[in-house]
């Protein structure tokens, strides 16, 4: 697994690479366990080195503490996601977040990581894509005091809606949003559990931009980078916690 | 028009944030639309708080939410009380091994599914949905949980349509709601 820290220069902080081949027959991750040694908390020396109280050392220690904490949370989140082969059809390796939801700490950490990123960004709208975006979006919206806007399959939302068509592997589908849910000039986040080809997220961005909303970022728990969904999001940046290969 | 139990001052704000859409999904039905509640951060937060205050400290380890609007209210409650969240879904949405419970619709039947292994024997559970009408869906949810040995402590919904008597169809399980709509 490859870790990026919040301070990495790659521009995609907090993402952990998850190799889909390293799973048991039943879809559970084969966890690698090694010695856990947290420097500078566990000092291997029998005395405190003279440099340990210098300002630079303490600064570096704090950054290391923060990044280790982030990495621990991400590692737990990543290992709580179950991989199911051949669902919904042969050849597809399905990333199942329901096992993350069964781990209250991992679920809380997932939400916390998003909330920490967005809480001071003046975001007034969190749009969640049906149905798994409805699980992650509302807790984020509640924590950052934004409204939650569900983006739904056709004929689910009552009253007046606007509609955006998007491509599937075979055929097209449609996504709907309520008229009047969001106002021109609002700043929005779009949340879903996973980005694959980016088709659904792209439709969501178009829906919001059609009514004059600024899409600040798309946020997903998981990215499948090989499907290059990130490239289909236009100007909108993408933030993910876990990359699955 | 919505009728609210005036036990708590927050209820009025919640009730008045719910929009009624006539003739949806078909003529004659007055649809209770909670999306307008979700557009009011204070009302949404109060909704969740009222449930959390009731269920915190009751040793509930499972919050089961019914697809899809139960997915909006269930997870924030689960997070706040430290319980796991279990989605109960329409057929063929959950990957891997599932158990299935059929239930009756006005015309025909439908099915609710839950993952095998999500819930253990003896766990105390809550079932959450946005609204209870006839009680058919909630009844199927209760059966799913009881089949794996969980104890359903209570069903919790934002809205009840009392004239449809869904409360009587819950296998004797208690129902807690915030707003009645007549």
Secondary structure: elements and pairs:
The complex is a heterodimer of chains A (245) and B (182).
Chain A: E1 16-18, H1 55-80, E2 82-85, E3 93-96, H2 98-101, H3 104-118, E4 125-129, H4 133-144, E5 147-151, E6 161-167, E7 172-178, E8 187-195, H5 199-210, E9 214-223, E10 238-244
Chain B: E1 2-4, H1 9-16, E2 19-22, E3 30-33, H2 35-38, H3 41-55, E4 62-66, H4 70-81, E5 84-88, E6 98-104, E7 109-115, E8 124-132, H5 136-147, E9 151-160, E10 175-181
Parallel strand pairs in B: 4-5, 4-8, 8-9, 9-10
Antiparallel strand pairs in B: 1-10, 2-3, 6-7
Helix pairs in contact in B: 1-3, 3-4
Short description:
The complex is a heterodimer of chains A (245) and B (182). With 245 residues, chain A is α/β, with parallel strands linked by helices. Chain A is built from five helices and ten strands; from the N terminus they run βαββααβαββββαββ.
Describe the fold and architecture.
- The complex is a heterodimer of chains A (245) and B (182).
- With 245 residues, chain A is of the alpha/beta class.
- Chain A has five helices and ten strands; from the N terminus they run E-H-E-E-H-H-E-H-E-E-E-E-H-E-E.
- In chain A, strands 1-10-9-8-4-5 form a six-stranded parallel beta sheet, sandwiched between helices. A two-stranded antiparallel sheet of chain A has the order 2-3. Chain A has a two-stranded antiparallel ribbon with strand order 6-7.
- Chain A is globular.
- The N and C termini of chain A lie close together (10 Å).
- By secondary structure, chain B is an alpha/beta fold.
- Chain B is built from five helices and ten strands.
- In chain B, the strands form three sheets. In chain B, strands 1-10-9-8-4-5 form a six-stranded mixed beta sheet, with helices on both faces.
- Chain B is globular.
- The relative contact order of chain B is 0.18.
């Amino acid at each position: 697994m490859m870790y990026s820290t919040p301070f990495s220069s790659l521009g995609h902080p907090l993402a952990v690479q998850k190799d889909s081949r390293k799973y048991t027959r039943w879809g559970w991750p084969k966890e690698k366990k090694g010695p856990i040694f947290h420097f500078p908390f566990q000092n291997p020396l029998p005395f405190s080195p003279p440099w340990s109280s210098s300002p630079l050392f303490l600064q570096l220690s704090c950054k290391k503490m923060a990044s280790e904490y982030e990495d621990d949370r991400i590692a737990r989140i990543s290992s709580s996601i179950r991989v199911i082969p051949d669902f919904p059809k042969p050849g597809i390796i399905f990333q199942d977040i329901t096992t993350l939801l069964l781990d209250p700490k991992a679920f809380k950490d997932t939400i916390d990581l998003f909330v920490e990123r967005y809480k001071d960004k003046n975001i007034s709208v969190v749009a969640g894509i049906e149905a798994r975006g409805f699980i992650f979006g509302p807790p984020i919206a509640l924590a950052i005091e934004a409204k939650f806007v569900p983006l739904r399959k056709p004929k689910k939302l009552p009253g007046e809606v606007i509609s955006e068509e998007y491509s599937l592997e075979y055929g097209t589908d449609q996504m709907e949003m309520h008229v009047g849910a969001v106002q021109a000039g609002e700043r929005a986040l779009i949340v879903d559990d996973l980005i694959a080809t980016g088709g659904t997220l792209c439709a969501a961005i178009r829906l919001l931009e059609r009514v004059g909303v600024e899409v600040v970022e798309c946020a997903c728990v998981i990215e499948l980078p090989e499907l290059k969904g990130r490239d289909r999001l236009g100007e909108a940046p993408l933030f993910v916690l876990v990359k699955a290969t | 028009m919505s009728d609210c139990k005036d036990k708590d001052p927050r209820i009025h704000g919640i009730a008045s944030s719910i929009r009624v859409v006539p003739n949806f999904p078909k003529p004659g039905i007055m649809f209770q639309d909670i999306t307008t509640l979700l557009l009011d951060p204070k009302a949404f937060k109060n909704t969740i708080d009222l449930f959390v205050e009731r269920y915190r400290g009751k040793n509930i380890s499972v919050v089961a939410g019914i697809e899809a609007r139960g997915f909006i209210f269930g997870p924030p409650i689960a997070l706040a009380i430290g319980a796991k969240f279990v989605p109960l879904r329409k057929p063929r949405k959950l990957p891997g091994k599932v158990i299935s419970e059929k239930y009756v619709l006005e015309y025909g039947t439908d099915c609710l599914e839950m993952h095998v292994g999500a819930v253990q024997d003896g766990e105390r559970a809550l079932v959450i949905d946005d609204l209870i009408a006839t009680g058919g869906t909630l009844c199927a949810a209760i059966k799913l949980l009881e089949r794996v040995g969980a104890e359903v402590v209570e069903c919790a919904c934002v809205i009840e349509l009392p004239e449809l008597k869904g409360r009587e169809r819950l296998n004797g399980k208690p129902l807690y709601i915030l707003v009645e709509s007549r």
